[in-house]
User: Fold this.
Amino acid sequence: MRTLITALGDKIQVREDVKRIISLSPAVTEILFELGLRDRIVGVSAFCSRPPGTSGIRKVGSYGSARIEVIEELNPDVIYTVSGYPEDFSRRLSEKFPVYVFELPSSVAGIIDLVNKVGIVSERPFEASDIERELISKISGFRANNEIRAYVEIDLGGPVTFGYRSYITDALSLLGIMNIYGGEDREWIEPDLDFVVSSDPEVILYEPKMYSRFTDRNREELIEKRGWGSLSSVKNNAFFVTPGPLDFLAHHGPTFIREVLPWIRDRISDINAE
Assistant:
C-alpha cells in the first residue's frame, strides 16, 4: 500500500497498482485521459465531459453529491476530487472509500501543477512532465501589452464572478486584462450588478449554464433585463459569450490553457484592431 497526503492534509492508504478510479473532477478526468489511464476510470461526475470518451463511463454523481450504492458497486481503489466547494462531501465519502483531494488551482500555474500532481499520485510522472512542458510553452507565447477592464460571469445556477483567488483572474492578468472584481479576497463571488454598471467594463465574458442553449436573443434579453445597454462593452460589441455547450472558463484542466486563453486573447485582439 502507498501512503498519500491529500490537499486537506489527510493521510490515505492506496494500493500500489491502482486499477479502478472514480474521478469527480472534470479537470482531473481530462488529465487522467491524457496520462493514458482511460481504461482505469470506472466512474466520473455528470460534469466530466472532456474528452469525448467520458460519455461511455458510468456517471456516479456531481461535484457535491454521489450515489453511494453506485460507488459501492464500482468498488474503486481510489476516488479523486478537488478542494473548495466539494470538501465537506469529500470528507463524508472518505469515511467509506479512499478519497484523494487535489488542491483547486488558484492560478494558471496551478493548473499546470495539477497535471503534475495527478501524474505523481497516479504513478505517471513522466507522462505528466511531457504535458507540463507543452503547457508551459503555450503560456510563454502570451504577452500582456494592454490594460483592459473586464467583467466575467458564469451561470452556475445563478450569476457567479471571481476574485483574486481564482485562476480565471490570474489568466486575465496574464493577458493584460484587469478583472473588475480582481481586488476581492475571494474565489467565487455573487456579483453586485449595480457595481458592474458603475465600473463600466470594456469587456464582458459570459458563460451560460453548462449544456444550455444560449442564443443571441437570450443575450439581448439579459442585457435588457439588467439595464446594460449603455455599457461600453455592449455598445462596442465586446460582450462575448463563451462557446458552448460545455463548461469553458469554469474548466481548469489542460483545455483551459490550450483553448480558453487563446480564445480570450483573440477577443481582445479584435477589440484592439478596431
